[in-house]
Amino acid sequence: MIDPNSGTVAKEFGEGIFYMPHGLTVDSNDNIWVTDVGLHQIFKYDKNFKLLMKLGEHLKPGSDKKHFCKPTDIAIAHNGHFFVADGYCNNRIMKFDENGKLLAEFGHSNGEAANSQFSIPHSIALIEDLNLICVADRENERIQCFSAGIADDQRALPVGMLITKADGVGRIYAIREKKHYLVGVTESDGEGIEPQLFVMDMNNGKTRTFVRGIENAHSLAISDDGIVYVGQTGPKQIIQIPLLDQ
Predict the structure, then answer these.
(1) Contact, 94 vs 105, CB < 8 A?
(2) pLDDT at position 246 over 50
(3) CA within 20 to 30 Å of 16's CA: 88, 143, 205, 208, which one?
(4) Is 92 annotated in some ligand binding site?
(5) Which whole-number Å values give the CA distances from 108 to 120, 140, 209, 241, in the listed order?
(6) pLDDT, tens digit, 9 for 90 and up, residues 156-211
(7) Any known ligand binding at 24?
(8) Cβ proximity of 149 and 161 under 8 Å
(9) Does the annotation list 173 as a binding residue?
(10) Which stretches within 41-129 are classed as H helix?
(11) 37 against 131, higher pLDDT
């Protein structure tokens, strides 16, 4: 945990537990969720770092209902259901109930860029009131948003139904949502698209560049007051950027 004002480390946890932690999410109850691409596991801790749930088998990748293969990210609904981007190998999105029971999965890849196919789903964002789970489909350079299957009203669509998408965005490494705007970071695709921080309006699916030239961005988070935090793998740092027009 880092003090956003001073940049100093206030508290740390996980040494000797994690091997290669990749995705980090805090849910509405202040529980901390971690995906570990080295251990092929998912962890849930309370705010005091007490272990509440662990899924996947230690150091054993797999593609069945009880295993992951380098899971990249996680998103949690208010009812406790959660989605996992399973990630570098399996190219699928998995939905679980609050107890860790698998409810649905969709995605996979056959080497093509057809709808509902992924090539490294590197990050996900849940927009509950729109019943959407959005996927940063990294190597296909696009965002795909699907029915999350968490609504009981007219939006009660099956899990995994494609609703909207944005193509040609770049190699997207991370996405998060703020008031129906999807914020994401990309890396250069080597063909003229430079790294950028972008915003996608979920009401019309249009994207616009917010900041250019953020090299090696790998993760991001958005605070309640609209500050975007971008984690860079090189240099190894976190930068803060105010989100305009929040």
Answers:
(1) yes
(2) no
(3) 88
(4) no
(5) 9, 13, 29, 34
(6) 567 888 888 888 888 999 999 998 889 999 987 777 778 999 998 888 778 888 89
(7) yes
(8) no
(9) no
(10) none
(11) 37
How far apart are the C-alpha atoms of 47 and 28, rounded to whole Å?
11
* Domains and their CATH numbers in the chain: 15-120+139-149+160-168 (2.120.10.30), 169-245 (2.40.10)
The answer to the question of whether 218 is labelled as a binding residue is yes
CA–CA gap between residue 236 and residue 224 (Å, rounded) = 24
- Check the annotation: does 220 bind a ligand: no
Residues 97-113 have a mean pLDDT of 88
Longest dimension (CA), the chain: 47
Q: Residue 57 has which token pair?
A: 């088998």
CA distance 37 to 69: 7
For the segment 65-95, what is each residue's pLDDT rounded down to a tens digit? Answer: 999 999 999 999 999 999 999 989 999 999 9
Q: Which residues pair with 25 in a beta bridge?
A: 33
Q: 58 a known binding residue?
A: no
Q: How far is CA 98 from the centre of its chain?
A: 18
pTM of the model: 0.94
